[in-house]
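User: I want to check something. If I give you two sequences, will you return the structure for each one separately, not as a complex?

Assistant: Yes, each is folded on its own. Here is the first sequence with its structure:
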Amino acid sequence: MPLSLFAQQPKDSIKSSVLEEVTVTGIKTVRGTGHLPEAKDGVIYAGKKNEVIIVDSLDANKAINNTRQVLGRIPGLNIVETETGGFTANGIATRGLNPTQSIEMNTRQNGYNISADVFGYNEAYYIPPMEAVSRIEMVRGAASLQFGSQFGGMVNYVVNEAPKNKAFELYTSQTGGSFGLFNSFNSIGGTIKKFSYYGFAQYRTLDGWRPNSQQRQFSAFARLQYNASNKFIAGVEYSLLRNRIKMPGGLTDSMFAANPRSSFRSRNWLKSPWNILAAFAIYTISPKTTLSIKSSFLFSNRALVWRNEDGGAGALDEIDPSTGEYVHREVENEDMRNTTTELRLLHNYILGNNQNTVAGGVRYAYAWFKRQGGGEGTTGSDFDLSVAGPYEYDLDFTTTNVAPFIENIFRFGSRLSLTPGFRFEYLRSTGKGYKEEGPDKIITNENRKRSIPLFGVGSQYKTSSNTNVYANITQAYRPIDYSQLTGFGLTSKIDPNLKDAKGFNADLGYRGTVKNVLNFDVGAFYLAYNKRIGTVLINPGTVNEYTLRTNVANSVHKGLESYLEFNLLKYLNANSTKGLSLFNSLALIDAKYTSGEFKGNRVEAAANYVNRIGLTYADKKFSGTLQMNNVGDAYGDATNEKRSNDPVAGYIPAYTVYDLSATYRINRYALKAGVNNLADKNYFTRRTDEYPGPGIIPSIGRSFYLGIAAKF
């Protein structure tokens, strides 16, 4: 009896002053939020929906990577706040897509992939600490041509660079806070003749808002760059993460209502050591032509020992009176290896009387993923990955990907441009191993190939030197991944006939800056997601109730996205050294199934609105931000059940959370303080049928932090 594993398919640092306008390699921003230029680093951005966040300009709790503060200005950003519940990074998504571990995004650091397998296991377990990040770049669905076929687009965390005019610079930041938070971040960097270097080390401990949610984490990064000339640079980078997390488990609705801080699991542990080695070279062949290559090698692991999920969140982890011991825990282990190389060429040329730009290249990637699960662990409570006997399943997956791509900006005069593009994805996937089903051991040895052409076209019209109208439509594609084929600690069942998903993204908007006073981006979007994989509640209200992962139906996500930021003091006095800014990041999202049994139902995890409003004051020494985060309600599964005994199905209520952060600068020193969840709101952002649950994963209540930083 064969085991079907593949889809069945028809044939910076502290500043001494606060700058109201920051320029980084051609990126224009107001208070640190702006847009990417038409072309940069071998990539075309003209006509694409994009944002860039200058992290150093933000007052935020960077010690714990508070995502809603750091990335909250991006319209429609849905955030799964489960980092302290067992994940190592809060997941993100936009436009009503699934935010769990950012699986709908192409997640990068310094332009290269940092997830385990961009197709087979596209989950982000590592992102750099925000104190090390200079800027964050995000491109929506139109990113699929340049970066890969994800529906959600690309997010790129750009790490600080070495200072160019110093041989040595030290930056140190120490932060303490509620629930045992201690974060120590230290970095060094400099330039000596033709060599530059930068590195950081971060150590963080956290006891957690809930019992049984301790974290210990160490992350580090090193870059050595050789600046041979103005035409050629090359370098190497290494990133690592080491952590150990105790997971408090999920809750039922009644448990959450009684006490959202409760935990009934005390024996769940996770570690996810991450290693990424990268090399790059950039050669400016001529003032018009640039050639670049980036290559990365990821070798990482994820392992956990935990109480079996059988029975859902309501099954308490208690000592069995008949044996005087706990039940045996389960052990899961995953090894990940991948190598990715991207070659890019950007060339400016004259056609007629206009300068046009072509950007093209090719990506080669190979990933190997070993998944072992269902191993019988100990009856103890400590972090022990010992296994008695064989695993219930032991599977090896590989993915080979070759993808050539090209885009061209055709300019018609000084205002109008048209950018068509094409990408061709070749995928070869294999699966080998076994899986036990009852008394049977099912052996598999499969091999599948896919060839996927993707087309897109964008346009842009400059209404002034700093404003433009943009539009694009781009195809997207998402193959089923390993977690959808072999349930990892799932309470859900999996449809054996899963198929890949296809669709497209479309945008129309108006954006720009007006002097140093107004920053805006207002637009509409339309996302078609065909054969969308989701969860469906089967036999609702009965003793045989369960959820099924399947191709639910086609869905359409459409709506409005708006970002407005107005600096009142700069408007009243253009020469003012102070700033008082009001910003609003708003998305209205209508994400519904358009076919099948659940036609008209809302897509699971899709909030119908995301509204964030903030007030920021800044002068030469002091800056502070008060931010309101108001996120609409959502559902855990496609049936839109309000309440269920199944851990993933049910209602996710709307919530409003306030955050306050401030920084005071004295010469080379800076004092940082803030309060997150100012009103101590009890809320949650996710129901899960797998780790770190199952069940509701509560978000953190009110917490405080205080820190000091210095640069020498």
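And separately, the second sequence with its own structure:
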Amino acid sequence: MQHSPASSRRGVSAVLQALLLALLASLALSACTIFEKQPIQVPPRQPDSPVHAPATPAPPVRGPLTSADQAFAARNYAAAITLYGQAARNTALPLEQRRIAWQRLAEAALLVNQATAALDAVNGWRQMEPRAVANADWQTLCIKTLRAMPDSQPKSDQLQALQRDSASPPRLQAMAGVSLAAISWRMADLQNAYARLAQLAASYPGQLADLEATLYDELQTMPPSNGESLLLLIPQEQHRQFPATIILLEKARRLKSYDPAQAAQIAQYLQGAVANTALLAAVLGGGAAVPPAAASGGVAIAVPLSGPYGNIGWKIVRGAGIARDALARQGVTMVVEAIDTEQPDWLDKLRALPETITVVGGPLRADRIQALDTANLSHRFAFFAFANGIGVGTMQEGRDAWRFFSSPQDQVRTLVDFARSQFNVSSVGILTPEDDFSQRMTQLFEQEARARGMAVSVTMPYPASDRNAWYDVAGRFLQAGEVQAVFMPAGFDHAEIMLPNFIYHQRRDLLFLGPSIWGQALSRNRNIVERDFQRAAFPWAWRMDAPGAASRELAQQLQATGGGAPDLWAAIGYDFVRFMHAVGQVPSPIDATFLNHRLTASSIEWSMAPIHYDAAGRASQQLFIFRPTRQGYVLFDAPAGTAAPAPTESDNSGEGAPHGEAAQPAPAGGQPQ
């Protein structure tokens, strides 16, 4: 047990002591108010996690505590709580034995998820022994008890009070700060979490070992993907600094059971960078070190990581991280830096990237591409926009920036090729509302169809707002000319009402073609008459059941790291990093002719629909063709009855997204703007 010297105790004013006592009393009161009406939910610890776990062997016999100690050692924590509680409140016992009873009572309560009882014990110890605030065991129990409580505003307030109270020892302030950052982390506010953690390391340099241990414990309450995401947000040159060191350490612990070579490689990398050497040894168990691989370049990912499209950006970043790790297993180090384009200083962060990074994936939004044009950064970086077009300001695709996403031209070309090759369609009609997106897609489809020898027999606008008139619209359309297929460049909400009107007019033989935005609505179940949509088709770049090894690895690694099911956004990040590794180092200033040659000469096994570049650096993507079902969508040629649930491309992150560069909604065919 550690006590502060008498001189230190005199240094804390009576007023501050009273404030701390009032704070702790409020902790107990608020905790009881919060937790009496709901069960305590404490995420389970990993079985091999070594940090701060109470020892279960029986402690030395201490007279009246013998029975309680024996119950604790036997893991009969309910009995131990009762017996320790009786001993702690027995004023006839020596102060030392009562202190041990309060401590053991709190530890036993935490082990059975009784956070309120643990908080009562922590407060009981503090009230019995005011100087306990200087005791490292009391500090650890205080933070562990607050951590055991569900995240809430009262919990945040209590942690903030501990961190800001000048009567709190620095160690207690530091640990409270870590738990505050973890709350932001679990709420997906990664920028704030990282800022807090970095500030703690600067403010409490003497408490680094405890900061590390507390953060390691907090990581047990988070999905592995959260750590991966924050790690990609931290610049590579800071990966041997807190908090990146502990995120890597937790990653090594998880890897140890199924990829010991990579875990050992991380261990070697962390040698000398972790202050808590006991933590490092306990987690990694002294595995054989593997020399780090030689660096072979790197990329930056500049996408929204906060705001309404942050979910899309983080999926891209996670896919990029999986590709980076896959290359590391092959002995290749590929640096991946993440930049949040929603932050006002994102261009400054681009300029501050190491000179070895000359390729940037992104941006995603059209206005951010415009900002690149204004900032005049295309001479230093090769930007591969995750957008359906580059034509912004003076920028030209293949000269000032490149595209790593399908275009509207890709959509109409895929549809025309499909209609001709699979159904021998020679004449088509276009039925379109009069919004900008539909008119643009109509123009592109007409050009592509006629260029490939397909007659456009009818082009008819219709009133988007007057759905009662759509039955008559379908009738007039059929009378206007003979067609074998109908292109409807509008959302699926139009298709599911308009298309049955053709069935009512006895034209079940028609082939119906739609844009990629149909996938946005079909990423969730739709109550459609599936028979009516057996001859409806739309293009999309992601196939959930793709048979290749690349798509399988993406799915397996996302599942292993808690990242959920794969989708197009994760595939974009995954394929981008792998493809840029195949392209090789791109010298700066950027030579477009050199890069275009490298793009045409490079190839990978794609997890999404393959992207090809021509000699001028223009990208094209041959998309998959799907048909709608009640469960979502399946490949058009899939046999009836084999429909699988549709992938949730954006977890609804694209719902209501603004239109992209070509006035095309995101995420199913455009990008946020």
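Because they were folded independently, the notes below concern the second chain alone. The radius of gyration is 31 Å. The chain is about 50% helix and 10% strand.
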